[in-house]
# Entry
Amino acid sequence: MTRRSKILGCGSYLPERVVTNAELTKTVDTSDEWIVERSGIRQRHIASDGQFTSDLALKAAERALEHASIKAENVDMVIVATTTPDNTFPATATKVQHNLGMTTGAAFDIQAVCSGFVFALSVADNMIKGGQADTIVVIGAETFSRILDWEDRGTCVLFGDGAGAVVLQASPDDVPNEDTITAQGILSTHIHSNGSSRDLLYVDGGPSSTQTVGHVRMVGREVFRHAVTNLANIVGETLDAHGLHSDDIDWLVPHQANKRILDSTARKLGISADRVVVTVDRHANTSAASIPLALDEAVKDGRIKRGDLVLMEAMGGGLTWGSGLVRW
Ligand code: ACO
# Structure
């Protein structure tokens, strides 16, 4: 029997400490006006000393499991999308698995930077469809503040820390073909990479190259240009795969890189601002965590309701980009 992945619940966690643009101006040569005008960001959450990516991921996963009414002992896979793992190895997901109290199943990390959550969702959906897992926790978690060069004002003002998670579960795909678009669950995922543009956004270190962690480096204008094009293309590809029009989408939940990228993508696609979930003003860019954080906010405040058609899209270093279309 064919199977479909349903999203049973979601959860998220933001570190307590909020750093406003005004506070940043005390240590960085910048201004609230510049940051708001260029990015839409007003504040970000920063993890405390000793608080790791796995700690953020664990809290988000626990909240998602509670929302889904699923016990950790019934989960058979934990996937963490992150660029800021606690250690080079083992996978951060193994620590989350252990801290959830799980003694069986599989846990591993996925690295696709800001596209990490949609890549992880794609892997999880295909694991469920292939029958390799029944219940999967997919987490996007980052302590991006740890890889920022706080002397590079072109990057350090743009990012923040946080985590978000969803719980997927297999259900029988017994819906007649003509009705698949109305059936609850993940309708499709789409992922792409282009390594020729990897120098536009990268970290200048790593175990094999420098034996250091390194810092984020970015050619901002070029990344902006690629983001608007790739994101419009991935949305088009997703809609075409189902014969849909942008009017059919109830909610766009984009990766929260920059308000200007969000606005340009929505404008290009003819999606009105009131159907776009925006958190970048309060969370900044939390990389792989940004989509599940935004999703959780819109689900919990009642904007996204059961039966809504939700489109998630992201682009990040690699370059990588992708989407996930879900009937909530
Ligand atoms: N505060 C004040 N001035 C600054 C700052 C800052 N924080 N950062 C840069 N500047 C200055 C520069 O030094 C430059 O000054 P100059 O003209 O005297 O040389 C001026 O502002 C313009 O710099 P640019 O880099 O050309 O500014 P731009 O208009 O391109 O905006 C930005 C920069 C916001 C990074 C923009 O390129 C952008 O949004 N890019 C997209 C990148 C992005 O969102 N990346 C996130 C990760 S990728 C992803 O998630 C999709």
User: Anything to note?
Assistant: The chain has two domains: 3-172, 178-327. Residues 264 and 309 are 21 Å apart (CA to CA). The two ends are 22 Å apart (CA to CA).
